[in-house]
Amino acid sequence: MGTSGVVAGRQGRAGGIRLRPHQEEAVEAIVRALTPRPNRVVPAGLRATVQLATGTGKSFVGAVAAQRLALRGVVMVVVPTLDLLTQMRASWVEAGRAGEALAVCSLVQDELPEGMPGSTNPLVIGSWIDRAAASGRPLTLYSTYAAAGAVEDAYAAWPEREGRELAPLDLMVCDEAHRSSGSAEKAWTVVHDQDAIPSARRLYMTATPRIWMPPKRRRRDEEEGQEVGQDSGQGRRRAWQPLPEELAVSMDDQAIYGPQVYTLGLAESVDRGLLAPFEIVVLELRDPETDAEAAAGQPVPWGAGAGEAEDGSDDAVPVERVAAMQAGLLKVAMEHRLRRTITFHPRTLEARFFSETLNQTAEKLHAEDPAEFPEEVWSQWLSGEHPVDYRRGILGDFGQSEEYDGLAYRVLANCKVLGEGVDMPGADSILLQGRGSMVDIVQAIGRALRMKPGEGKVARIVVPVFLRKGEQPGDIMESDSYGPLVRVLTAIRSHDARLLEALAVPQRSGRRTTGARAELVGAPGEGEGEDEPVGAFTLPVRFQSLVSQTALALFVSTQVFRSESVYWKEGMQHCAKWVEEHGSLDVPYNAMVGERGNFPLGKWLSDRRQDRAAGDMADYRVVLLDSLGMIWSVSDARFEAGLAWARQWAEEHHGSLAAPARASIGGYAIGTWLVELRAQAEVPADQDGALPAERRAALEAIDPWWCPAWPIVWQRSYAAARAWWLACEGRVDWPSLPIETAFEGEAIGRWVRAQRGAWAQLAGEQQDLLLALGIEEDQELAAEAAAKAEKAARPVKGRADRFGQHLEALHAFARREGHVRVPRQHKEALGAAEGSEEPVLLGLGAWLSNQRSRRAKLTAEQLRLLGRAGVEWAAELAPVRRDTEEAAR
């Protein structure tokens, strides 16, 4: 969870923190997707998915979206772990979520946050939901996936107990939603079932969506209870058995997860400064099992270690391999001045051994080379078996600086405890052995990428590889030992292929960019040459040995990608088909093509324009694109890219381009783009800077009112009212529309009432637009508006006048009651104000209380007057204040 702000409305605040731009984009997309349309029933409930890179603030996005969609409703938040449950509750409170907060989990009351009851009793849960639904008060249920079945049981048991159905949830938010994918037989998939847990809306949030390609493979020998291993030493792959297709729950199934309405990947997050740029550091070590002679030079801790079995059983820790990783990590830490590192291990025994022997290795290495290795480091370990309070204490110590205990470098070893969603101090590096699922690897990488705004760090992902006998460092194409690196790169590619695309193409020099500065790939000193211009973030991979650019590109393209040439051919094929279908290569930037609609042809062409402008495109490829009618103009292409996003914005906002200035879509600042064009549209046509007629016509073809003569805020509210009118098929009784009616974040009920009352102040074209929807002037509302305007135009009484008026009311109260002990809520009636027959009601009790609170600011004369009216504290202070004022004069 990154440090993020929240807003409870389009641009409001909640919890005192403001959402960052990418979070505002996500919230708007969620609200738009999950806002019900009039007269439209969705039996399975509205559903939507949001993908936000780890560390960009998913929790706050979900909380703010819930505030806008179900401010007073029943919301269920589902998370995978108990740690994340309590952490999530704190985030939602910070985001401004009010009302009751209740836990559906196995934690006992002492383990839950104060003021947050917990239960898994179906009848108790049912009573919570029923009470909140009946009272209209907000209720938030925080549940783990494992305990979600208790909510299902509540919906099943309630009709039997009460004889009526339990009210459905207003919103269910599934955090780390990839945990709900996979086999449909998992108990956790109950969160998808509308019959089991009815909900008007479902929001799925994840950093790592899981796409399952049935049939899913399953070990047959595991099912039969056989030992897993190779067959007869022949090296054949283990037997697998398919999972029936109907049992695969995949996150690309829109019937379950809804459309993916917002996406922010790793590459874009780094480019936008939300996550730290990072690099892969490959530790090339010797494998003690196959090359004992060469590995003998690697340091090995002495003494019995945790989990070290003397009989050589499977529980033994591979001591030599662990020591080699420790040495390599310590060297990297010194070279890059790292401060905090998290290491990931497949077994608790190894995590504990790594931590408890790390200082033995450091001591031995420091004695041999004090300049290269630290003398002592802070080292601890964690596993899921540790109590919550103990984990919090260790994480707190991990976040301390050198001033705390004199130790500059801190290492925290863990086994499957610092995974998804866990909030913890920032780390600048991690050690990954390339084990676990693709999701696990990406989640682990996210531990190092989180950073505070403006921190400016570069994170390191340390990947150890163990070379077998006869293999040489740098032989990445010949050696199979670089498998851990392949798995890490494949995991990154599965999450965001853009990070690796440039690695698959040989570069003209040894330099690549990390988004902020040029970085060398390979060993220091390799490939010195001209600096290439800094561009979008490209992932550097560093080796201890010399690795050529060509070898690295070939390694990535063959081991991680199919190849760059295949991507090129696929793009050209889609270009040819587009020209055949549309007659030209005028492709909108956001156009997606292909059988599954997953090839970004518009972006692909934009990237080709950039390649040519940078001189990175081969001549024959330029000729091939020209043969299809390629449009190379960068200026026109930029406008066309903006126009494409404008079309998409209008499509998603009912044909209107009345976007807020801070609006963005797909990471594109559409609001700023439109503001600039509106400014150009105001320049006379014969002057420099005027908007070209053809561009004006292109925008008017999307929305004739994209640049109105009146404020764009009015046009945005009108567009929402028109969308409501269309959704109701033109049958709307505007005079009886409830004033609290809102649609897609716009308060159209209040706005329509205001237009009907201020009809005379509207321009003729505005009146015509409203009349087209059936909105007409209301004489009574107009009279009310005129009266309010007249009242607002009256002179405002100054502070002294108001003091005198309330003093007069105080004397009247004292004459009637015989004392000045005025109740706080009391209001005193004075004579009618000028031009009115109604008496003036003054909040005398509140005023008198306020005078006492601000008595230090009252003058001696004001205190004297209050004292004469019978206010004792004022009478006591008056002489003192008079003396003070005289001394000051």
Describe this structure in words.
The chain contains 31 helices and 24 strands. It is α/β, with parallel strands linked by helices. It folds into 4 domains: 22-35 and 42-224 and 241-264, Rossmann fold (3-Layer(aba) Sandwich); 266-559, 3-Layer(aba) Sandwich (Rossmann fold), CATH 3.40.50.300; 564-632, no CATH class; 800-888, no CATH class. The strands form 7 sheets. The chain has a 7-stranded parallel sheet with strand order 3-4-2-5-7-1-11, with helices on both faces. A 7-stranded parallel sheet has the order 14-15-13-16-17-12-20, with helices on both faces. A two-stranded antiparallel ribbon has the order 6-10. It is globular, with a radius of gyration of 34 Å.
Strand-residue proportion: 5-15%
Unreliable spans are 1-14, 213-246, 303-307, 508-535
Number of helices: 31
Tell me the CATH topology of the largest domain. Answer: Rossmann fold
Q: What is the CA–CA distance across the termini? A: 58 Å
Quaternary structure: single chain
Roughly what percent helix? 40-55%
Specify the overall morphology.
globular
Number of domains: 4
CATH architecture of the largest domain: 3-Layer(aba) Sandwich
Biggest pleated sheet: 7 strands, parallel
Rg, Å, rounded: 34 Å
Structural class: alpha/beta
Tell me the number of strands: 24
Integer average pLDDT: 80
